[in-house]
Amino acid sequence: MALLKVLLLLLGLGVSVNSDVSLQKRIIGGHNCADTERLYHVRLEGSNGTHMSLCGGSLIHPNWILTSAHCWESERGWINEAMLKVHPRTATQQNQVIRQAPVIYTDQGHQHDIMLLKLRKPVSDVPPVKLPDCSNRPKIGDTVQLAGEGATTTGPNNERLSNAATATHLQCVDIKVDDGSAFDPTCGHVFYTAAPNKDICPGDSGSAAVFNGMIYGVMVEGGPDYACEAPVSIMDVCEYIGWIKTTIGVK
After folding, report:
1. CA gap 55, 68 in Å, rounded
2. Could you list the active site residues?
3. Among residues 208, 249, 175, which one has the least CA distance to residue 39?
């Protein structure tokens, strides 16, 4: 019973929990997102009763969420739930269990790490993020904004902590494009971002990389056990824009 109470408390804080009650570290070097931005941010939680997974996502249409494919928990017994209006914290949160199978981009039998989730009920009171203008993509040296929920500190030598306190506010971080669009055989078309003392962690996967108020990327990967050692991999939304528009039914 005591363990159950701890789990429920952690869930209420938006923390990623597993069977040994560990916490995942996320945005590093960020700041509180303004209450007027990132209203489209979605928290995605998977649960099988004893384990949990945590990701971010973005509402891009009243019926659709864009996120990373690895955020979907497909094993028997898992439930995938979308939590809307998690930012600002003063909003009235809306939860929907995702019943429909995800739409994952697949090319010649190879799945890329980007997917669309269809909501059971359209969302009418959350403004979706704008799709990108792919004639003006962020270039090397341009600043994009990433975001996520969770702790903001590291241990000695930037070691990722397993028991760090979580943030009480969605965290944003401004970070520069480090390398342009490339093909990564493990996940698909990506670009990379990096800046001193700034990073993400797996719990942020699926959240948006925003440039000029539009979604140009979906975060898929942080660095190794020590933060700020490797660039952040970002799925390049412009490389998938035709598939996205066709799937959600927009021109």
Report:
1. 8
2. 70, 113
3. 208
187-219 per-position pLDDT tens digit: 999 999 987 667 666 677 899 999 999 999 999
Q: How far is CA 214 from the centre of its chain?
A: 15
Q: Read off the pLDDT of residues 144-193 as tens digits, 9 standing for 90 and up.
A: 999 987 555 556 666 655 555 555 778 899 999 999 989 999 999 999 99
- Three-class secondary structure of residue 216 per DSSP: strand
Q: What is the pTM of this model?
A: 0.82
Q: How many whole angstroms separate alpha carbon 118 and alpha carbon 154?
A: 36
Q: Residue 9 is encoded by which pair of tokens?
A: 């408390």
The answer to whether the CB of 32 falls within 8 A of the CB of 172 is yes
Alpha-carbon span 182 to 158, nearest angstrom: 28
The DSSP-derived string for 131-170 is PP-TTS---TT-EEEEEE-SB----GGGBPPSSPPPPSS-
pLDDT band at 28 (very low <50, low <70, confident <90, very high): low
As beta bridge partners, residue 96 has: 82
Q: Measured between alpha carbons, how far is 188 from 159 in angstroms, rounded to an integer?
A: 28
Name beta bridge partners: 44.
Answer: 55, 82
Any idea what DSSP says for residue 102?
Answer: P
Say how far apart CA 181 and CA 220 lie, in whole Å: 14
